[in-house]
């Protein structure tokens, strides 16, 4: 039974899933969703994901959405014993903490700051920018003396966070001024399996979309 992934190449949460699949050497059956034409709002799609988001994974008929739930599921199911999502409770708790920091703080604050400018024609809000900078400072602190965001090994937390932080490249946020973040970014780029194919390609599509909108 194939594992289907409903996705959009430019989407950061979709890129996190593609990176995880590559790290697990797992082939996904990719199904492009045309958000622009509202394919995600059609009854067939709402049946598998009422939240109408990408990514959505369908494994043997079982749908899972929310990228961080998908990537941890993939390691649980297809990467038994993998360091990508360690089983030891404390090590796992640290990975989970980073994933929740990502969804609730880091990527959330970036979305609050940047997407109204891109998709809502809103002016840049300096208070929102200060919150993003505060989150980047926290990430920098987490990375002090650590190779990866949850310790010495690459984990799904790195894959989720790099998919989001790489999207910052489309904005005016200079995340490379945080020395630990800059070093970590280069490390993950060069050590995450299939990084170029799984993240960089979609990131280029995202940047092109942002540029085309902001130039109008
Ligand atoms: N927290 C979700 C966010 C997913 C999300 O918002 N995806 C966007 C594309 S990047 C989407 O599907 N937007 C369409 C919609 O919400 O209707 C995840 O990580 O999967």
TrEMBL record:
Domain of life: Eukaryota
UniProt cross-references to Pfam families, sorted A to Z: GST_C (PF00043), GST_N_3 (PF13417)
Domain GST C-terminal: 88-209
SUPFAM superfamilies on file: GST C-terminal domain-like, Thioredoxin-like
GO molecular function annotations of the record: glutathione transferase activity
CDD domains the UniProt entry points to: GST_C_Delta_Epsilon (cd03177), GST_N_Delta_Epsilon (cd03045)
GO biological process, one term: glutathione metabolic process
Subunit: Homodimer.
Protein name: Glutathione S-transferase
Domain GST N-terminal: 1-82
Stored PROSITE patterns: GLUTAREDOXIN_2, GST_CTER, GST_NTER
Taxonomic lineage: Eukaryota, Metazoa, Ecdysozoa, Arthropoda, Hexapoda
InterPro entries the UniProt entry points to: Glutathione-S-Trfase_C-like (IPR010987), Glutathione-S-Trfase_C_sf (IPR036282), Glutathione_S-Trfase (IPR040079), Glutathione_S-Trfase_N (IPR004045), GST_C (IPR004046), Thioredoxin-like_sf (IPR036249)
Species for this entry: Euphydryas editha
